[in-house]
From TrEMBL, chain A:
WD repeats lie at residues 13-54, 55-96, 97-138, 238-264. PROSITE patterns: INTEIN_N_TER, WD_REPEATS_2, WD_REPEATS_REGION. It comes from the Eukaryota. Pfam families: WD40. CDD domains: WD40 (cd00200). This is WD repeat domain-containing protein 83. One of its GO terms (cellular component) is catalytic step 2 spliceosome.
Automatic annotation (TrEMBL), chain B:
It comes from the Eukaryota. InterPro entries: DUF1604, G_patch_dom. Residues 151-171 form the G-patch domain. Residues 688-697 have a biased composition (Low complexity). Residues 946-986 have a biased composition (Basic residues). It comes from Drosophila navojoa. Residues 1-25, 67-137, 163-236, 687-731, 761-780, 873-893, 905-986 are annotated as: Disordered. Residues 74-88, 106-121, 186-198 have a biased composition (Basic and acidic residues). PANTHER family: G PATCH DOMAIN-CONTAINING PROTEIN 1 (PTHR13384). This is G-patch domain-containing protein. One of its GO terms (molecular function) is RNA binding.
Amino acid sequence: MPAFLNFNCSKTIDCKQGAVRAVRYNVDGSYCLSCGSDKKIKLWNPVSGLLLKTYGGHADEVTDVAGSCDSSYIVSSSLDKSIIYWDVATGAPVRRLRSHAGGVRCVCFNEDSSIAISGGRDNAIMCWDIRTRRLDPVQVMKDAKDCITTVLTNDHKIFASSLDGCVRHYDIRVGELTCDEVGQPITYLAQTKDEQCLLAGCQDNTLRLLDCESGGLLSEYKGHQSADYLIECGILADDAHLVSGSSDGDAYVWDLLEAKVLQRIRISDNGGVVHSLATHPKRQEMLFARRRDMYVFSTDLQIEEEQL
Amino acid sequence: MDEDNHLHRFGTPLEPLEKDEVPAKKPLAIEDQIVKDENGKRRFHGAFTGGFSAGFWNTVGSLEGWTPQNFKSSRGEKASKVEQRPEDFMDNEDLGEFGIAPQGIRTRDEFSKESEQEQRTGLRKRKPMQPQVAGPIPGVPVLEQLLRPVRDKVAVRILKSMGWKPGQGVGPRQTRKEKRQATARNKREQYLLDHYGDEGLPSSAKQQNREDAADDEDSEDEDDDEDITFAPDDYEPMFYTPKDNRFGMSYSGLSRAPVLSKSSTSATPMQHINLFGQLETATKQKPFSIRGQAFGVGAFEEEDEDIYAKDDMTRYDFSLADKQPQKKKAQYVQQRHVIDGFSEDKSNITHNKPFVIDLPRDFKPRNWLQRRSRFTPLDAERARKIAETDYKKAGLGRHDLNPEQRAQLLGESQVKKNPFKTASSVSTQEQQERSKSLLELISAKSSNFTKGGLITTAGEELPAATVAPVELSKELKESNTALQAQAASKTKNLGIYLIDSEKRDYLYNNFLIPASSQPSSGFKPFLADEAKQQRYEKFLAANLKDDKEITEFLAELQPVTLSLWDREMEKKEFMQASKIYRPLAGLMLDRFVSEATVQEGNAKQDVQPEEKLKIVMKRTKVMWKPSALLCKRYNIAEPFGGALPEVENALKGKAKMSIFDYLETSVNTKANFQTPTIIPKHIELPKQQQGQQQREQLTLSTSKPTPTAPVEEAEVKPPLEPANSTASKPIFVPKTPLEHAVEAARDKPISEKTDLFKSIFDDSDEDTNSTAVAQGEPQELQRDAKIKEMQAALGLPSATATSAAAVNLLRNNSPPRGIFAALFKPAEEQMDKSTEPAPPKFAPIAGNKLKIAYKSREERLKNDRELAMAEVPQVDLYGPKLPSQLKPTEVQAEASIDAKLQQLWQQHAPKKRKAEQWVERTLSSSEDSDEDSTESSSDDSDVKAKKSKSKKSSSKKSKKSKQKAKKKSKKSEKSKHKSKKKKSKH
């Protein structure tokens, strides 16, 4: 296993869109998206900090965004109870899908981006056939007892974390719903690259690593403060390190196996909650959102390699 | 150069002229200069080049042309009525100083001097009236023209109010003598004025005037009557202008007013004649002559030097008085910023002394012209005054209290009683016990309005227990004492000694304290029953939550006499009451939390975290049906072939989206209470069992087609193999008794059909039993043997196992694992149980069965024909032809027997059957298919299999084909035991 290298800030971008609600990489990590409280989504080049496009059309704060596998479409969720399917190049909303009864919190694409899955404050998960003109969801899963915070999917499963303290696995292949009850409200869910484990960010200042197969609790990671915020967490590209935001304005990097804090990344000296983050799908690079800014962090070595 | 040094330069030097440049000789000539209006447009042109112009070439258009007004939606302004004024349609110039509607301060119509003409005729410019279309006579109403309200000028009105009448003079009333003197004086003055002008009015003359008056007084003294007074004569008083120059008397110098000024036209006749003014004749004596400049001064010209003026002697005054006295009229110049009818004060004499006006204290400026509706709200001051006076009408101090205050003093709020309470208090104990539950609930509620709360000075009811009771009572006490003291002081003067301190205390103790001082009481829902109320209070104090505890607690309190039912009722009442009659503060406390408590809670949490709760992961698994489309998009086959029970989809049947879908919590739906089950029919049995089952089904199917539920594809396929093997058997199908019954019953009326149904029901049980039990063993053995033989002949691999499951190579034969182990085991057991006797649950479905039985027969016949057809070489049919040598001889032999039987049977068959014979293919050979079907080959079966395969669109059909296949397999046996069966049938 390669030695851990400290992360350094390589770019700070003032998004100029109010408070940044979420930051996300696209599928290959060459672009990033930021959701603002000004109802806009912005597409950036994280390396140069260049604003490429702004997507406006939501009626309320944008909560989450996901890029399609070919990076030609974006799907975004908003507190206006709708999700919008955007054309990246033109910036026009292709489809606007409304069925949620509450604000939509999270959204994701499946592997071939034919299905968008959204979860909202109405405790419902909805699967949308995004390629067709169908305006109602293909399937609605109303099993959760509280707000859905994250939806994830792989080739045959849909994972959803909820504030009712459960991680639900919808196995399409088997036709089975597996509900793993953690007991603490789960604010965010991340999946390891090998799809064996899930990392659940819990409200009790703990990250928990869950085993997909058995549903067992593998490890716990502590150190950060989540307070009452929906703090996001992530797994770095090498599957060896975890990262989480914190309400004290820092970000924490853990070793996955040893469960100890490797680095406490001081993002800013003047407070602000680091609530959203995104890990680069390939490189040791991260995005953080704090207040109105987006920060790009990477290990020095990587940068040098890039430059060489 | 030296000279330059000595020179001093002032100003900026002009640009040195170029050598060839000829300097412009003249500045722009005055006639070349152009007057422009404020918009920079030329308004005046030469007389021959257009004259005066306005607008755009004297049109209302513009350079761009006339464009229609854009549509402007006034939907939003519908409500607000926009009033259009003439000014909206005017240009800025019109509103300007020289426009048609100059803006600025002007005298109102009523104050301004109106022309004599108007005064005389009474005609006055009226505001244009709205033509009333409603009336029969068009135009302005005649009556309105005839009857005209008299409207005087303000000044006239004032004078009239002072007693003035038109025609009279202004001033104090005079006696006859005085009046006479005044008239004489006025006459004289008028004369002098006419002769000398006001300036020329000599002081001596005035003096004389007075003397003359005195003389008159003397002379006409005799008929003087002091009592009769007259109004003074109306005459125009003279105004004396103080002489502020040192010219001679009545001398005015040459006027320096310019030609264009108006004053020059009228005031000084000796001046030039203005072209724009009216022509003036010099004097009456002199011949009419026009003087002045020839054509006046042009618009662009400045007034020239007085070139044509003749400075003749007439322009000079030579005498002081011999001239016709000229009355110097007030110079009337239209001046800027001066109201029409007024002129600027030229005199330097200004009264700088400011006068302080002593306004009355309650003076309020008011525009009296502004009318006020009597419906407009009174201003606060006035309203208060009126209200005050209303109370004080009687003049007694006690009326100073308002009704509320009085009520408070008298304790009226306590006096109020409600009928329910008295009723309940009057009633006897038993009645109370009986009617308690209802009455008390009502009384409690109603008495709370009066008992529980206090009516405060503010007039609102405060529940006694809402505020901290001690505080409240204290506060009330203070306010009440203040009130009472106030009242006492008011009434003291009248000598009425209403309330002394003792009484006050008494009042307190009786009315105010009881309600509020008992801290525990709060609401008293059971006040009618003392004991019960006490119990209730104790119950409240105990603050129990658990139902059992409450029962025990109350059991101790409740008297022994109370019945068990009453106890239970009381408990319920108490619990209900404690819920309902929670004080408001309590209710609010439930919902809101003060910030302090939140912080406190946070602090507590901060302390806590050391005490860690172990996270115990719990995993639960339930069935979940992914929608077909979702599976498709994920590129995954639907689990269980999509045969999972459909979840009650709320979104499907109802409207597209309803908020009520979300209102009910997800656990409340019906689906949540149904444990997902797996229907056994979908379960694929392990090889052996399946084989067994298949066999049993075959046995059963001889007499009764099992109405099994739809079978999915996987299971449909296998039966083809046995069909293949049995298809070579003869096609003749003897009728089952049921079929006979159906045939027979077809023409019968419904009433007689009961037999049929009966036979069906009986049949299903008896027949199965008889076939399965009585003939079961030997038949099965025989059949097995036969199948074995056949398969050997066909060269099929599986010699022993003929079941579908055995043939299906793709089937997973390993025992179920994981969830399947749990799911399938009970199902298998169930299957085992249900196999041996015919499952009774199928029996009652008579109608269904009938249909199936009939159809299957029909199908069978059809297939027979098709098989027969297949023998004829056809181009339409395709597929590999089985080698002819594979034809089993034994089977053929059997087939021939069956064929004979069929022929026999067909001879006896009703003619009707011909009619319903139908074939899909239009082939001539189909007519005699029945006769031709004596032979059947493996080719036929192959074709048939294909056919049935193609028909597998619906599960029902496939099922039929399966049944048919089974039947076929049976046929051979039937034919063997034909004689035996025939007996049993008939």
